[in-house]
Amino acid sequence: MILVIDKNSVLKIFPNPINKNLINQSDTFLTGISPYRTARSPPCAAELASDRKRSTCPETADELNFWNCTMFIKQVVIEGFKSYREQIATEEFSPKVNCVVGANGSGKSNFFHAIRFVISDLFHNLRNEERQALLHEGAGHQVLSAFVEIVFDNTDNRIPVDKEEVRLRRTIGTKKDEYFLDGKHITKTEVTNLLESAGFSRSNPYYVVQQGKIASLTLMKDSERLDLLKEIGGTRVYEERRRESLKILHDTDNRRKQIIQVVQYLDERLKELDEEKEELKTYQKLDKKRKALEYAIYDKELQEAKKMLTNIEDERYRVSVTSATMYDKVADNEEKSKKLDKELKELSKEVLNYNKEKEGIEKRKTESVKKRAKLDLDEKELQDKIKMNVKAKKDAVVQLELLEGEIRGSYAELDRIKQLYDKQVRDEENLTRGIMEREKQLSILYQKQGRATQFSSKEARDEWLKKEIRDYEQVLSSNLEQERKLKYEIQQLKKDIDDQDAFLKKRRDEAAEIESLISGYRQDYNQYKAERNKLHDDRKSLWEQETELSTEIERLNSEVAQAAKNLDHATPGDIRRGLSSVEKIYKSDKEIESGVFGPIYELLDCDERYFTAVEVTAANSLFHVVVKTDEIATKIIRQLNAQKGGRVTFIPLNRVRPPLVAYPDSSDVVPLLKKLKFSEEYAPAFAQVFAKTVICKDLDVAARIARSHGLDCITLEGDQVNKKGGMTGGFYDHRRSRLKLTGTIKKSMNAIAEKKVKLDEIDQAINELLAEQQKRDAKMAHEKSILEQLKQDLKNSEKQKLSIPKSLEKKEKLLASIQAQIEQNRANISMKQDEMGAELVDHLTPEEKVSLSRLNPEITNLKDQLISCRGNRMETETMKSELEMKLSTNLVRQKEELEAVKLSSETEMLQGEAELKRQELEDANLLVDQLNQQLKRVSEHLHRNNARLDKIKGEMDNLKSEEDKYRSTLQDEAKELEQLLSKKNIYVAKQEECTKKIRELGPLSSDAFEMPAKTGMKELCKELNKCHEELKKFSHVNKKALDQYINFTESREGLQRRQAELNAGDQKIKELIAVLDMRKDESIERTFKGVARHFREVFSELVQGGHGNLTIIKKKDGDNVDNDQDDDEPHPAEVEGRIEKYHGVRVKVSFTGQGETQSMKQLSGGQKTVVALALIFAIQRCDPAPFYLFDEIDAALDPQYRTAVGNLVRHLADTAGTQFITTTFRPELVKVADKIYGVTHKNRVSFVNVVSKEDALEFIEQDQSHNE
User: How far is residue 182's CA from residue 169's CA, in Å, rounded to a whole number?
Assistant: First the structure.
């Protein structure tokens, strides 16, 4: 590669060798050495990124005003960096002067380091331990990461980001170091380019002045100051370009020497080749003849090979035709075999179904036969019961007549015995009463007789009598209460008897009414029986239809399953999975189910002849799912992604806008959309897919319409012509038609639905018939159960009625006994009362004595009579009880049973049940007959299908044998074709060999083609051998002498041209080096002039009445350049262009403005600091930055200079719009500051807050007092 300077003294890079035209046409190319920016040329990002190393000192006030910066640091956010543990965000900085104050060790310098951490190279390429050192170390949890974020005000778009506020953040951790711009990650290089484009010069880092930098400037030597100016002026790029140019110049010189050596060698070789040309001409004449003979021989062999190849091709064509015929037969046989195999599978499936149906029928038949046998036994059992009931009724009538006679006799005898029993009871009561009265009289007489001995006085007797009367009165009261209760109970028993009679009458009336109803049921039984038989017949018919429909539904379900399987095969895998997932999703989510309408192919319908056109037009759009809104589509897509459920395209109706298409008015063209049937709701979706397609009569019409109207056209066969002219066509397999499969599924599903509806209707009819029959049977059974309950109630009531008289009789007897006791007690009371007034005597009256002698014999006689009467009464009572027991427990019960048998409706019920059983038996017989018929039908189908299966298997075996025969023939023909192919390959190889040899002969003269065609191969070979013998004489001749002579001549001319180009390039490179040296000197002088001028201005501003100059020293003679360097024109470069033209830069200042100037060595420490600050401000004015960071620049200055520095900073901030952020311990900078920040330190953690100017000055005063 060569660097060349064009006529405009600009570098151009060319590959080696160099083309002169490129040199003459070269344009400006000197990268990095273009003239510095003018005052009206704002810097671009690319220029600043590559050309920042050059000096760009503005040399006029206009230039300085142009660079007035409005961009400034707006805010700094720090967290975890050095002493700033917690996140602190400063209040917004002033765009002019900001001052930071704080005690030593509070974190001021760390605050400056945080800003430099983001925008400078101080913390570039940090190691792990260096990053760790920047993290906060203090009490509490360990800080693992830190960040510093600077917010820039970018209203002037100085940073090439289209935002008024830009946030640049740098984050570090133990293993990371990252930059973020407005929250987005960027690289370090991008950060550097971004900052340089905003005016942050890398070659002039003095916009950040840290502690110690001023001291280093004061100690600089003159040569070091020159190096600083070179760095600022960007001369390093000139030195690099000069080294590259010298290296290229050296390489060019080496190549030029090599070319000279090669040219000398070529001259020598050309002389030798000139002597060999004569012999070579004779040799070439003989060689031409040899080539002509060889061509004739090769041509004859070639023609013979072509002839043989033609014969072989004819033979191959014959064999191929035969093979094709055989292949067609094999294909036909395979097609027939496929059809037969398909038919075999279908028949096998039918046979399997028939076998299953046969097994089901046989199973049902077995169950039906068992049921029929059971019904037959039940029916016979019921008939036997009916016969037994009829016989039992007849026997009951006869026995009832006999029993009623016996009962009448028993009742007559019972009445006689009851009368006798009553008479005996009355006699027994009279005797008992007589004995009691006499014993009472006897007791009174005995008591009266013994009163005188019992009591001592009348009063004692009367007192005892009163006591006795009271006792008798208590007993009487108790007896009266018992009498009252017994009378009430007897009254209740009589009332119960009346109630029982009424209840029995009511129950008998109800029973009679129900018996009349049952009688009515029996009268309607024949009508009900006929209706029931009709219902049974209907049910049989419905059951037959139900069986047929169930079979049809099973067949349709199998067709649906097969069609669905074929449709799955015709659908791409990911789309099939997606559609399946979409169906599951919207069925599981009720909110979106109503908004999903389904894929296109399910929503359209059309004539079958348009299926191909529709499928080819839509392609995979057939599977696009139509939804109501795009929100529903978004929800489903999210779930598809979450479930990994395939891919689906959705058509949201709220987003689709149907295109407006103007269709041609022609009978040969029909819009495809008009041939589709779909709901109007889906019109936008169908218009999007099909609106721009028309059906054409043929491809010619389609091509014409596509050109003239810009529409996609398609024929009914599926051949397409799109609006851009592309044509697509060919065979389309209709068997895999997705619309046809979908139509089959829809048709089968509709048929299944219709069959199921009909089946449901049949089931409902059967259920209604059964329900009606069960309702009637239940009603009759209910009436019968009520009747039986009434009869049972009658029996219970009659039994209860029979028990009441007995209780009544007992109560009446007990009442009579109680009444007797009452009378006796009353008599005793009356007698005691009569005795109370009488005198107390100790003897009886004569009448009383007679009565006493008479009463004992009477009592004895009456007791004897009572014993006899009681025995007779007990005997009679026993007879009465036996007779009553016989009547109640035997005769009456037998009568009731016989009457129940006589009046029993069990016979009718049994007859009804028998009729039902008979009907069920008939149904069972009919069902068995139907199953036999079905079994016969299925067996016939099985027989026919098995016969057909055997026939198909035989045909398949025949086809198999024919196919084997054909394949054997094909194998023979294949072997023959292989042999022919082998021969063909031999002759093709021979043909290629002859062609190759002819081609290797090279160009031939016209004589070679005029060789007589009839000349034989022998003559040609003889001539060729003779020619070879003559050519042997010239074996020593250099066969390539002529070619070498030509090639060497061309090579010599090319090398000579290249040498000339190298010479020209060498001159251009030397010119380039001179230009580089000149521009380097110009850059140094220009930079020096700018810095020197600004140094004089700044020094005069800082030191009132003083002046200062910078002087550049030449290395050649040590003479100084004129001190008056205000001339803007650069000095001309020396002819030598040497890089070491200057030796150093010397500083001469005067602080008084009088006397000689002093050098740096002659100044005090404070004066050196002032000079260093003046140099810093001069450099910054030469290469202005958007803002400046000063860290205690006034520490070593006297008050007057501190004031001057503060005023200078204030002036620059007000006039140039430059932002300053300074730290200080002195009041002068604080007084000129717009905003002051105080840094405090607590528990090894720093904080930054805004403080007032008064507080800051007070802090500085206290700090100075403390230090003093």
Answer: 8
pLDDT: which is higher, 105 or 64: 105
Is it the case that residue 843 has pLDDT exceeding 50?
yes
Q: Which residue has the higher pLDDT, 842 or 1070?
A: 1070
Q: What is the rounded CA–CA span in Å between residue 655 and residue 645? A: 25
| Mean pLDDT for the stretch of residues 765-779 | 67
Residue 1025 is encoded by which pair of tokens?
């051998």
Sign of the alpha-carbon dihedral angle for 587, 588, 594, 598 = negative
Q: Using an 8 Å Cβ cutoff, are 77 and 88 in contact?
A: yes
- Tell me the C-alpha distance between 534 and 1051, whole Å: 122
DSSP H or E run through 178: strand 177-181
For tokens 């100084």, the residue is: 1120
Q: Residue 212, exposed/middle/buried by CB under 10 A (0-12, 13-18, 19+)?
A: exposed
Query: H or E stretch including 1249?
Result: strand 1245-1251
Count of CA atoms in the C-beta half-sphere (13 A) of 494: 8
Non-local (6+) Cβ contacts of 185 within 8 A are 178, 179
Structure tokens at 1003: 């160009």
Rg (CA), the chain: 70
Q: Rounded to two decimals, what is the model's pTM?
A: 0.38
The dihedral built from the CA positions of residue 666, 669, 672 and 678, taken in this order, carries a sign that is positive
**Dihedral (C-alpha) 1138, 1140, 1141, 1143: value to the nearest 10 degrees?**
-170
Summarised one tens digit per residue, pLDDT across range 208-267 is 887 777 777 777 788 877 777 777 776 767 777 778 888 888 888 888 888 888 888 877
The rounded distance, in Å, linking the Cα atoms of 310 and 315 is: 9
Cβ neighbourhood burial of 491 (10 Å; 0-12, 13-18, 19+): exposed
- Express each pLDDT in 665-704 by its tens digit: 888 898 988 888 888 888 889 888 888 899 998 888 888 8
pLDDT of 1025 reads 79
Do the bridges between strand 1235-1242 and strand 97-102 make them parallel or antiparallel, or are there none, so unpaired? parallel
| Neighbouring C-beta atoms of residue 380, cutoff 10 Å | 12
User: Strand, helix or coil at 806?
Assistant: helix
Collect all residues with Cβ–Cβ distance below 8 Å to 586 and sequence separation of at least 6.
Answer: 592, 593, 595, 596, 636
CA pseudo-torsion sign 332, 338, 342, 347:
positive
Long-range CB pairs of 1074-1078, under 8 A, 24+ apart, other chains included: 1074/1133, 1074/1137, 1075/5, 1075/9, 1076/33, 1076/238, 1076/241, 1076/242, 1076/245, 1076/1137, 1077/238, 1077/242, 1077/1133, 1077/1136, 1077/1137, 1077/1138, 1077/1139, 1078/1133, 1078/1137
* Residues contacting 310, CB < 8 A, separation 6+: none
User: Which two three-digit tokens encode residue 491?
Assistant: 């009254």
| Edge-to-edge strand ranges of the sheet holding 669-671 | 669-671, 693-696, 712-714, 720-721, 727-728
Per-residue 3-state assignment (H helix, E strand, C coil) for 918-986: HHHHHHHHHHHHHHHHHHHHHHHHHHHHHHHHHHHHHHHHHHHHHHHHHHHHHHHHHHHHHHHHHHHHH
Phi, psi of 420 (to 5 degrees): -65, -40
Each residue of 451-471: b (16+ CB within 10 Å) or e?
beeebeeeeebbeebeebbee
Alpha-carbon span 835 to 824, nearest angstrom: 16
Q: How many CB atoms lie within 10 A of CB 547?
A: 15
Number of H helices, E strands in the chain: 29, 24
Q: Which residues of 312-321 are buried (b: 16+ CB within 10 A; e: fewer)?
A: beebbeebee
Distance of CA 397 to the CA centre of its chain: 89
Intra-chain end-to-end CA distance of the chain, in Å: 70
Q: Name the one residue in this structure whose structure tokens are 């067996």.
A: 939
1162-1180 pLDDT, tens digit each: 787 778 888 888 888 888 7
Query: Which residue shows structure tokens 């218009």?
Result: 687
**pLDDT 10s digits, 1241-1260:** 888 889 999 999 888 888 88
- String of DSSP letters for 421-441: HHHHHHHHHHHHHHHHHHHHH
